[in-house]
Structure to design on (128 residues):
């Protein structure tokens, strides 16, 4: 097992569980990309944009609970239960989401978002 990847995964979990954007910032490569899997033209293209997105979502009342963190092949699979403030005609239901965090030189270089765990696990090289 890759000890550096394991340590990074623990730091990712701690930062996300605490909602600590300063700690999360330290884990991101300056040129990190975040968006839908295999769609590089969408999403965030650097650390500042990623952190701005997280802050804006938090300011609007979005919360996320970490449900799992697994080591993949040079990446980390993070499961989240995401809750947004309900609109007047919606129930407050948490939605499961997954992110595959690609790692290079000890930093997160790509964050691919998934609505389906099996697709995220396949991307991470984890048996479903």
């Amino acid at each position: 097992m890759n000890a550096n990847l394991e340590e990074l995964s623990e730091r990712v979990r701690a930062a996300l569980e605490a909602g600590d954007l300063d700690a999360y910032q330290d884990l991101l490569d300056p040129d990190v990309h975040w968006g839908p899997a295999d769609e590089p033209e969408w999403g965030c293209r650097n650390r500042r944009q990623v952190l701005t997105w997280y802050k804006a979502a938090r300011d609007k009342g979005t919360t996320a609970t970490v449900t799992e963190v697994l080591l993949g092949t040079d990446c980390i699979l993070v499961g989240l239960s995401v809750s947004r403030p309900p609109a007047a005609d919606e129930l407050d239901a948490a939605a499961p989401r997954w992110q595959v965090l690609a790692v290079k030189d000890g930093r997160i270089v790509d964050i691919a978002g998934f609505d389906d765990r099996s697709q995220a696990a396949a991307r991470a090289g984890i048996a479903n």
